[in-house]
Amino acid sequence: MSKNHDLKEVARFFLRLGFTAFGGPAVHIAMMRDEAVMKRKWMSEQHFLDLVGATNLIPGPNSTEMAIHIGQERAGWRGLLIGGLCFIMPAVLITLGFAWLYKTYGHLTQVQPFIYGIKPAIIAVIIAAVYPLLVKSLQTLELAIIGIACLALCFFGISQVAILFGAGFLSMGIAAIRMRKTNNIVSFISLPLFYTSDTSFFSPANISLFLSFLKIGAILYGSGYVLFAFLDAELVKKGIISHQQLIDAIAVGQFTPGPVFSSVTFIGYQVSGINGAVLATIGIFLPSFLFVAFLNPLVKKMRGSKLFGAFLNAVNVASIALIAFVCYQLGKDSLTSWREILIAICSAVILFNFRKINSAFIILASSITGYLLLLL
Questions:
Q1: Residues ≥6 apart with Cβ < 8 Å to 263
Q2: Cα–Cα distance between 316 and 373 in angstroms, integer?
Q3: Which residues contact 186 (CB under 8 A, 6 or more apart)?
Q4: pLDDT by residue (tens digit) across 320-345?
Q5: Which of 4, 132, 363, 368 has a CB 3.0–4.6 Å from the CB of 22, allowing a cystine?
Q6: CA pair distance 295, 315, nearest whole angstrom
Q7: Radius of gyration of the chain (CA)
Q8: What are the domain boundaries of the chain?
């Protein structure tokens, strides 16, 4: 009975989040922390931070993987499935509706004025979310130095994966030198990539579409913007979709709630209708479920090891450095007028002074404010 209750809790939590979580992975993770750690006490902040670091070490959409992690922590393997699906499905269904309208009528409703105020608010939300995680993760001067070094490397265009693993192995090496005994060594296990075999009831075009998105889901590191670079190479350059369709898919991903990766639902529908939408969605998200199912049981064991504990601490700091760099890039691109700067400052002031306010309300209010300011 208790397990069923936990499962219903997970379902309600992530369905609500799936319909209200605007703003991208960093904002989604901030909302999950607020609910799962601060309000519901499902896990400690340290373990939540460890899971954030762990998701950065595997391919796929980080906020979706965090939803899967939290679901598994709360309600086992069924929670893993329910948490992930409930977080993904609202975005997928909303995106599918836009995809149908787009294919039927040939254009999207003009929503750019409402998007104008969202990005400045997102920057404020990310900063407010990262600050408590930063305080928690900077346990020593050594970790602070590693964090600053990781942030500096971002400006030189070093791969995010290299920064994360480099920070982890550096800290692990320092810890190993300090330890006179090395009886806690745990070997790394490489994650296999799974590819589905040919299935007779799929058309060759649909199989190809599914495998393309499965490959992207299995190897993609980084944000939704990195996803679009992959889609450009996989689909636009091969003539499967037009560049304009990709841009419109990006727009849909930005102004709908939930994971930005739901943009692939839009693209799949343009390529092959409802079948394409379903196959593209399954392909892009399936690797995340497999990776998290494999990784989740290892995180607590890693924390229990001095060497891997040092590894996780450094990865956590590196993850925050990467998020800080994303904030810098967003700020450089988004804060180009007094209107956007005003929205960002007001959002930050509200978030830092009213910690319990839902980020979705800030983003919605900023969207409306941006529209009104453009009328001036």
A1: 95, 224, 227, 228, 231, 249, 250, 252, 253
A2: 38
A3: 301, 302, 305, 307, 308
A4: 787 788 778 778 877 888 998 999 89
A5: 363
A6: 15
A7: 21
A8: 2-181+290-374
